[in-house]
Amino acid sequence: MAGTIFVINPNSTEAVTAGIDQAVEPLRSVDGPKIACLTLTEGPAGIQSQRDADSVVGPLLKRAAGLENEAAAFVVACFSDPGMHALREQSRHPVLGIAESGVFQALTLGQRFGVIAILPSSIQRHLRYFGAMGVMGRFAGDLSIGMGVTELSNAEKTLERMTATGKTLRDTHHADVIVMGCAGMARFRRPLEEALGVPVVEPTQAAAAMAVGRVRLAAA
Amino acid sequence: MAGTIFVINPNSTEAVTAGIDQAVEPLRSVDGPKIACLTLTEGPAGIQSQRDADSVVGPLLKRAAGLENEAAAFVVACFSDPGMHALREQSRHPVLGIAESGVFQALTLGQRFGVIAILPSSIQRHLRYFGAMGVMGRFAGDLSIGMGVTELSNAEKTLERMTATGKTLRDTHHADVIVMGCAGMARFRRPLEEALGVPVVEPTQAAAAMAVGRVRLAAA
Amino acid sequence: MAGTIFVINPNSTEAVTAGIDQAVEPLRSVDGPKIACLTLTEGPAGIQSQRDADSVVGPLLKRAAGLENEAAAFVVACFSDPGMHALREQSRHPVLGIAESGVFQALTLGQRFGVIAILPSSIQRHLRYFGAMGVMGRFAGDLSIGMGVTELSNAEKTLERMTATGKTLRDTHHADVIVMGCAGMARFRRPLEEALGVPVVEPTQAAAAMAVGRVRLAAA
Amino acid sequence: MAGTIFVINPNSTEAVTAGIDQAVEPLRSVDGPKIACLTLTEGPAGIQSQRDADSVVGPLLKRAAGLENEAAAFVVACFSDPGMHALREQSRHPVLGIAESGVFQALTLGQRFGVIAILPSSIQRHLRYFGAMGVMGRFAGDLSIGMGVTELSNAEKTLERMTATGKTLRDTHHADVIVMGCAGMARFRRPLEEALGVPVVEPTQAAAAMAVGRVRLAAA
Amino acid sequence: MAGTIFVINPNSTEAVTAGIDQAVEPLRSVDGPKIACLTLTEGPAGIQSQRDADSVVGPLLKRAAGLENEAAAFVVACFSDPGMHALREQSRHPVLGIAESGVFQALTLGQRFGVIAILPSSIQRHLRYFGAMGVMGRFAGDLSIGMGVTELSNAEKTLERMTATGKTLRDTHHADVIVMGCAGMARFRRPLEEALGVPVVEPTQAAAAMAVGRVRLAAA
Amino acid sequence: MAGTIFVINPNSTEAVTAGIDQAVEPLRSVDGPKIACLTLTEGPAGIQSQRDADSVVGPLLKRAAGLENEAAAFVVACFSDPGMHALREQSRHPVLGIAESGVFQALTLGQRFGVIAILPSSIQRHLRYFGAMGVMGRFAGDLSIGMGVTELSNAEKTLERMTATGKTLRDTHHADVIVMGCAGMARFRRPLEEALGVPVVEPTQAAAAMAVGRVRLAAA
């Protein structure tokens, strides 16, 4: 199948891109679209603020424009989906965002979704976005693990914090499905799900799976 | 990949199942899960009422139970998603419904979704379901083409009516994405989209694509 | 007044029907419609899952069809209102469901309603239904007492658990009116209300009262 | 049964009270609560503005206070439910309002309710109230017949206008149940329902029926 | 600039009016509209119930009518905005209410607003109003400090209680902006904001600021 | 009063900035904050797409950073409020956006707001934003006048189209207050209001008025 799904990590941290690449591996098939994961080198180390989110739109659009001819679809792999709507205007291909896809997948797995955010400063931004998506009627809560992007290299601590946060979402906020509010952490999905006993959505996988489907169907 | 995605048409009309089978063909890959489309022979010729929808749940659960060991996932291929929640309780595999998946896909393609229903008697049922899904804040309208299930064999007339209904949804109800509120009509998707100039979602394709993604990821 | 209001308990537990019968006694008047409470013998001992809810629709519709000529109205006496919409299609008489009527009565008694469920597995189902009813904007919470249907024969423990759950709904979820999320427990309504200090709605009474009104007005 | 349900027409037009009295007649039973319909002589001829609505609260509370010992329940019989919440604070008896009860009854009869208002100036007030009730997710439309309160004595013209307005609500706004947005017009309910082919709720009947149920259950 | 903005305290407590007068002082400019703060001597000492709120509408309208010719705008300075909609009907000038203006200002400062109420009995009334305003999707919580209107003279205790309540709104209800649900307490705004670390809105200031803008623009 | 309110037009069209400057003139007072209107020379001629909106955030933040020390507040004067949330993170001063302020002011003037957009391509973007604001429950409609930004120099045609669009919003969508969905057109506000007979909000004025209030109160 011609064309590549470009999953663009809009932050410049290669380790995140590597995590994404691993996350989408099961979605690659011999006769399906290729899936390539890219790092937006112009991006900040992590997207922590609205400013960060807005700042990557220009470079992301430019990068995507250069890939347009090779592309079958684009995935914006940051939980704020920066540039997703602008890229939909620019590209003739399907464009998915991981927050959007992750939340919608969650809504097929539970009735009230909770989100595990990395930073407290992201929560207002997430809520504005969920409002724009029209899903606040099924929102349980969005809580941060309170760790900086750099601390996330400590895997054990990260999982521990995600688990504790997930338990609060489940027990206090009555979430019956959890969305990981960040990219590049697919390796924690399964242990988290086991610890919490409710479904956990890794949003990059959700978006990439949607993209594969869209590409296959468009090609038909 | 072991396991089959069973797409179950809960009505007994084989032509609908054949249409579904054709619709999901692009989603089959050599190394992916098989996709088998089945007709629920115990179902009515078409699901036209709440009674019809409720009546197929028992047979559908029974049929799915018999397939559980072979199954990788199930798709309920009727726009009322009858039995979907009960099947989620019963099966250890992913279970998708075409209305749920179709609407969520639509919400990644436009801001206000419109639905083309076959029968006027389905609209209240759809609205209750959209309310349960929590998406009424993005609902534009749900209009019927006013043709009986049997009349649908007239393809030309069906497409003509769907086009007219879609134009009303677009122009009067301000829908910027349309969901086909029925299964087995994938062949009309592209001409409808061309006639309307806004994206049109075929919900069986949306659900089957989601199912493929879920199966691939679960197998990893 | 000709015609009987048939209150159908869709589970097969006669004790529940007896509790319902006692609950609606004050609504019987010498010149009003008769009220008869029936047990759906084909039903499960208790409706604990979506599967259970869906499974009773067929038998319930059949039973109601046999009663159509004698009937003045029907009440579906299970908090999931199984078959209510299908019965509305089938019957020319008023059809009320206890969850629908109970919640609407609650909304005339407080601003945010809480629901005491029996089983945790019912809560998602309730929430889907409240969403379909469009009342999530006034929803405070839905918490289970965590007792099996069989344990409910222990009246003291049941009331104790309902009281504790009601207090959590009142104090943590800010419910100012409580709906009992089950049928057949009218005897606990008053002690619960006294213990909680906020109005408590017994939903079978709410639905049967609505049915009496509808029948009297239709007969005029 | 001791105690009287006082249905208070907060405007001073006796003809409206007479219409209400006739409307609730079928709800009177030999062993049930008495139902007395009163005119608030201090009220304006019709409640046409927010000022009118607010102005009747004081006299209504005073009148109700004088009736408290005889009362079993109160019904505020004006579609703005003026004083209903204050009267709930004041009285130890059930207090129903016709708009609240009428809308909730409508929501058991259709999925999207339409309201036929008398005056255009009432519509904003109604919408604020429906917002407070949390039912805007099921609102289809609220349209006025554009006749002054005094013109309403012309029954033929009134019914004609109500029918035309109801048809617009049904066909353009997709209402599948209609609420009459005024008291004292029960005589038009049946012809309107026949002309429209969808259920029509007379709100005074809805509220009085609820009141009867509440009184019977409280007395038990 | 001709015309005066009349800020009417609808309760009869002069100390409250004095607090309001001090609160709006920074909004007075040499070339802008005068701002006069009045006490409605007919009002109760404090507005604690729906009855209290309704009772002041008549006197407030009368007072405002007498001021109409001198007025440039009116502000209703009680957090229930009693009479605001009726006064909008009566006056040709802008009419603002402090709850409405305070909540809207809050929504420009945070994503989820919390309200500090004085009395628990006000909370249901507030919620009905927020529902009418259509802002429940951004509502975090409304909690009372549990002090009588007379106790409020104890400034230290009042601030202490407001701070504790604000912390609960922030930490448990996830409010990121707080509205003071009462008039006349502007002196606590800054210490409260410092103690809580999130923006705090004094609603009389919000409304008076809006009024000044409206008057200046209308005069142009 | 020290400090200047900087109203930043994020498009590069000086005529728009001139229109804004004229619009806010009545809000300038001798003892109040200065109001300076600036053109973002790096911006496009008009903001017509999400891409345009996103593209101005960087330059706008940079420009505002340079003004931070002189500034008392910022107003983002484009109906998409581009960069508003990022600027709130960056600046210690109040930051208002014209869409947000305009809509909230509208909600104090009517129950259902309509928006007159310039281009059809802006409507989806507006709707996402109104969803994020949580005000869709009071949304009537958003219709475009269908003129390019350059055509807007034809004042007569522009007003004619705005009037026709406003009438549709009023009569078909039941808007009772209209927001002008663009900056720089304050000169049309009054004739539009006269032609429509419902309040019309010019959003730059609404935002600048709010900013003046915030600055005065912060300075106190």
UniProtKB/TrEMBL annotation, chains A, B, C, D, E, F:
Record's protein name: Asp/Glu/hydantoin racemase
UniProt cross-references to Pfam families, sorted A to Z: Asp_Glu_race
Lineage: Bacteria, Pseudomonadati, Pseudomonadota, Alphaproteobacteria, Hyphomicrobiales
Superkingdom in the source lineage: Bacteria
InterPro entries, A to Z: Asp/Glu/hydantoin_racemase, Hydantoin_racemase-like, Iso_Racemase_Enz_sf
Gene3D superfamilies: 3.40.50.12500
Family, per entry: Belongs to the HyuE racemase family.
Alphabetical list of PANTHER family matching this protein: PROTEIN DCG1
GO molecular function: amino-acid racemase activity
